[in-house]
Amino acid sequence: MPLALLALAVVTFGIGTTEFATMGLLPQIADGVGVSVPHAGNLVSAYALGVVVGAPLLTAIGARVPHKRLLLLLTGLFVVGNTASALAPDFGLLFAARFLAGLPHGALFGVGAVVASRLVAPERAARAVSSVFLGLTVANIVGVPAGTALGQHLGWRYAYCGVAVIGLVALGALALLVPHQPRGPQAGVGRELRAMGNRQVFIGLGTAVVGFGGFFAVYSYLVPMLTHLTGISDSATTWVLALYGVGMTLGTLAAGPLTDRALRPTLYSGIVLLAAALVTFYFTVHSTVPALVTVVFIGAMGALITTPVQMLLMINAKDAPTMAAASNHSAFNLANASGAWLGGLVISAGWGWAAPDLVGAALAMAGLALAVTGGVLDRGNHPSKVVTSQDGHASLAVAEDTGVGAVEDRPAS
After folding, report:
1. 305 contacts 339 by C-beta, under 8 angstroms
2. Residue 213 and residue 194: Cα distance in Å, rounded?
3. Does a structural domain hold residue 176?
4. Angle (CA) 25 50 355, round 5°
5. Which residue among 1, 18, 150, 327 sits deepest, i.e. has the most Cβ atoms within 10 Å of its Cβ?
6. How far apart, in Å, are the Cα atoms of 267 and each of 11, 45, 303, 364?
7. Rounded to whole angstroms, how far apart are CA atoms 8 and 108?
8. HSE-up of 1 (CA within 13 Å, CB side)?
């Protein structure tokens, strides 16, 4: 794997740190800007809203910009957003700064995934894309605990300063390590929007929203589940979340090779195993060791299905995959919001703290139904091959069973 993938992973490490560290610092932020903790929780929503809006918008604006330059511009915006978060004097400006910090999130992941797939041979494209996601999972092990500890001991503004520094490091790494990747002569927002009109793209995004809604229905309430039902102390939950990140990292490492080998079987199996793990957690949550083992497995299965969904979108929008790849992260954030809402409904209805596990399993199976529907409709695909167009560029047509990555305007060899 080329070193350029390391630069992309540094970017996603920063994204993962800034997204999740806010949740651990809400009491400190609330005290700092003079609002209640529930009111400060709106900052999480502000960031998610920025992701949902920014992914398609910034990808459309940068549709003709060469990928390396676009990565640098988006990372620069990420640095500005987090610096503004550190300096915001009141809640209103902090809310705006968190929205600004979220804007480049999806576009960075989307462009990064496309760039990664073009840095390697087609049969290793999913492994390259999964290495980009690896930065996000490692952030849950290292970045989020470190950022939370920094914010708790020195003040929450220092946590955002630390993320801005990570962004500056990522800027340097991108400038040095990522090669120039010119856009094709037909690149533009119209081409991206036409690719988004593919029926399989809509089904893939629906799978992400519904299937990952099951994942987030549990993740959003994992800490109170562990404290109320498992009996784990508040001080130990940070380490449990890091253990969860270990599971996500293991799942991401497995996702690349498995997706390269068989995309849809990996997706189907991952969703089924995620649903099974969520049901299992409903019964194991009352015992410490079984609960922790299940938590690791849930993290692994959630991460395992991320790469095949991303690759599926890129394959079905193969003529212009950047917007589809970026919109996947808008779908993830919609899944986060909907899953947390549904999980909260069953808790409020008095079904108990473990009830989101069953809601999550039901959502995962609904996501599986969508994924299988897409597979049935996609059965007419031919074996993967490189088809050279008249302008001397090549697009990769991919069969549903291979999982080989889609490539935009790869020079024909």
Report:
1. no
2. 27
3. yes
4. 60
5. 18
6. 25, 28, 11, 11
7. 9
8. 20
What's at 243, amino acid-wise?
L
CA distances from 250 to 20, 133, 138, 143, 327 (A): 19, 12, 10, 17, 25
Task: Classify 386 as helix, strand or coil.
Answer: strand
| Rg from Cα positions in the chain | 20
pLDDT reported for residue 122: 86
Q: How far apart are CA 318 and CA 114, in angstroms?
A: 10
Question: Residue 332 sits in a domain of what CATH number?
Answer: 1.20.1250.20
Those residues of the chain that have pLDDT short of 70 are 1, 183-193, 195, 319-320, 380-413
Decide if 115 is inside a domain: yes
Q: Which domain holds residue 55?
A: 4-387
Residue 85 identity: S
In a domain, 67, yes or no: yes
Query: pTM above the 0.85 mark?
Result: no
φ, ψ of residue 10 in degrees (nearest 5): -65, -40
Distances (CA, A) of 162 to 151, 167, 169, 199: 10, 9, 11, 42
